[in-house]
Design goal:
Helices cover 13% and strands 40% of the residues. Strand 16 and strand 17 form a beta hairpin. The radius of gyration is 24 Å and the shape is elongated. The chain has 320 residues and is mostly beta strands. It contains four helices and 19 strands. The strands form four sheets. An eight-stranded mixed beta sheet has the order 8-9-7-6-13-17-16-15, with helices on one face. It folds into two domains: 89 residues, no CATH class; 220 residues, Jelly Rolls.
């Protein structure tokens, strides 16, 4: 049916047969074993249509197929005869800008300093949105509320959500190519802790719990990322009147592994600026390489653990 539609509208395409890159197509062996997933590839746009996944829309295919080789079959016409020529080609992964999970926070405080008030916005696109956007789209209203609560609970277990707004969740319209956006306000008493007349603000906890990689035994296997991705976080802390803020030097983190073979590498960078009573923290965590040899594992852990270290950072609001 797909092929008939593309032929009718004179859309040039190639048939793609492949498998997950964790299985790896080995072109030196003739075998049907690897040809377990059928998609369509459009050379003019370099996009795909996945035929067996209801959560994906053009131009996406399953992320596990990227970074693998595939059998591409192109139609040729010789007079009245139609046939196909095939070739084994590499399926390029998307870059880290294609898939992102970005968060924006503005933090103010209740007058009695009993809790932090969070103005929250989260934007996801590409493969980073695949786990949430289709689930939200196909769910009933009650289940949608549960999904939103589950997302926020990643950042705070004690949140009471207000003014919830969800945008660009319809996967059957052009919204699917726009970032899935969740906005809300919530009150989080756990984000602030009294320390005498002063207060600790746990700014690192806004980004949610992070993975930590501390191994007692040597790593024996290579590193495989699901897909290249970026996490941008912007955190604004509005310092209340009558207080100063300190401890910002801990926010300066710069752990970057250099690019190799056309990718941007991977890294964790955070910095800050204080203007008047507004502290702005910018974080950029990115992974632009799918596979790393075991020799690079220690460098990889430095980046992952930098995010975990950021999660533990608290700042001090000191009474004047």
């Amino acid at each position: 049916m797909y092929a008939a539609l593309f032929d009718y509208f004179e859309i040039k395409y190639e048939i793609l047969l492949t498998c997950s890159r964790y299985e790896k197509i080995r072109s030196e062996f003739d075998s049907w074993t690897y040809l377990e997933n059928l998609s369509f590839y459009f050379p003019h746009s370099k996009g795909y249509v996945a035929t067996n996944n209801i959560t994906l829309r053009y131009p996406m295919i399953q992320h596990a197929m990227r970074g693998n080789k595939g059998l591409f079959i192109k139609e040729i016409v010789l007079g009245d005869l139609k046939s196909g020529v095939n070739s084994i080609k590499y399926i390029e992964p998307t870059n880290c800008e294609y898939s992102y999970d970005n968060m924006d926070f503005t933090i103010t405080f209740k007058p009695d300093m009993a809790a932090a008030i969070i103005d929250y916005k989260r934007s996801m696109n590409g493969y980073s949105a695949i786990g949430i956007r289709p689930a939200y789209f196909y769910s009933k209203e009650d289940d949608r509320k549960k999904i939103i609560n589950q997302i926020i609970k990643e950042n705070s277990d004690e949140s009471k959500l207000e003014n919830i707004k969800v945008s660009n969740f319809d996967i059957n319209t052009k919204e699917v190519n726009e970032p899935f956006i969740l906005q809300c306000n919530y009150i989080n008493p756990a984000l602030i802790e009294a320390a005498g007349d002063n207060y600790l603000v746990k700014v690192g906890e806004t980004i949610g719990q992070q993975s930590e990689l501390y191994d007692e035994k040597p790593r024996l296997t290579a590193v495989e990322n699901d897909f290249n991705r970026t996490y941008l976080r912007k955190i604004r802390v509005i310092v209340p009147e009558g207080y100063t803020i300190s401890g910002m030097e801990k926010l300066k983190i710069n752990i970057v592994m250099p690019p190799t073979e056309g990718n941007k590498g991977y890294g964790f960078i955070s910095d800050y600026k204080l203007e008047g009573n507004t502290l702005t923290i910018d974080v950029n965590e990115y992974y632009d390489i799918l596979s790393l040899p075991v020799s690079e594992y220690n460098n990889f852990t430095k980046v992952v653990n930098a995010a975990a270290d950021f999660n533990k950072i608290s700042l001090l609001l000191k009474k004047k």
